[in-house]
Amino acid sequence: MTSSFIQAPYPQPLATNEQPVAVLGATGYTGSLVCEQLRELGLSVRLLGRRRDELERRAQSGDEIAVADVSDWDSLAEALKGCFAVISTAGPFLQRGFATVDAAIASGVHYLDSSTEQTYSRQIYERFGGRAAEAGVVLLTAFANAPGDLAAGLAADGLDGPLEEVIVANEQSGFVFSRGSRETLAQVLEQPQAAWEDGRLVPSRFGATTRRVRFPSGEHTVVEWGGPEPLTVPRHADVRRVRAYAKAPRAAAVTGRFASRLAPLVRLSARVGRPGPPPEKRRKATFSIVAEATGPEGGRRATLIGRDVYGTAALVLASGAKALRDGEARSTGALAPAEAFEPRAFVTRLGPLVQLESLVDL
Fold first, then answer.
1. Cys bridge to 325: 15, 73, 261, 281, which one at CB 3.0-4.6 A?
2. CATH number of the structural domain spanning residue 256
3. pTM of the complete model beyond 0.85
């Protein structure tokens, strides 16, 4: 796959501290956490949403608010005036995301999102990357999942190519879905998935393949899922095959054939219960991400460990905005995380929630 970006002809100007980061979905579970992280990083925040009363209730001293609707391009463009970046947490994105991307490009505003919908992110790369590059804008779709691509970049760095394979696998413990995440999961179960094979994206599905992967907790079975890495890794690595995996029993691969039938039940569950796990439970959730790259003369495994899945997602998004403000993006257009930023340096930004546990030759 060829990249849809062009090299910036000159360094990107640094944004000023006065230019805020707009957060779309700021009153939601993840959006609220993103706002907190942006404030901690010293960035100004503009909360975007449909209800002014709720925005005013959530805003803190120094914040700005603006009413905007994801289905109303004009309201989005107006709300983005004067911002240097927008972070969208307003999923499901295949239904609600494209107007925000279009308005961001038209407004000259960098864009990041928390999408886990591979189908949506694929369209961002294919439909919007060229326009964003021409406008000098960076699009970072599925950026809340950036640690997987960063781990892949670390594993592949310096290996002789072309690489035979890169796989990225996730393991989580104690994680509880928010209502918004359950709604998005229902959408994902109904959407087509893809893997990277022989230099192109090919149709796949949840559970299409399984394998064994060594995590810090031991060796476990993982099943294929529609993660963003088949889209992102080939943008910065010459590789024949890329698949994304999640730790699950091998039996889960069988149910993958019927994943779309589970969507109505998952969607129903999104209408009940708490918006998300309480802070004490959220912070106890742990995860590890393993990326293995295999080349003609050997391979390497990169392992990241972390805690607080939602807190990490918020920190990743806020840190991406800060890196953009600081002029650290290596190009413009729709970029993969390890294409936009130097992987090791960006992982360092994520401490203490995320750490590089090991980088070993295979």
1. 15
2. 3.30.360.10
3. yes
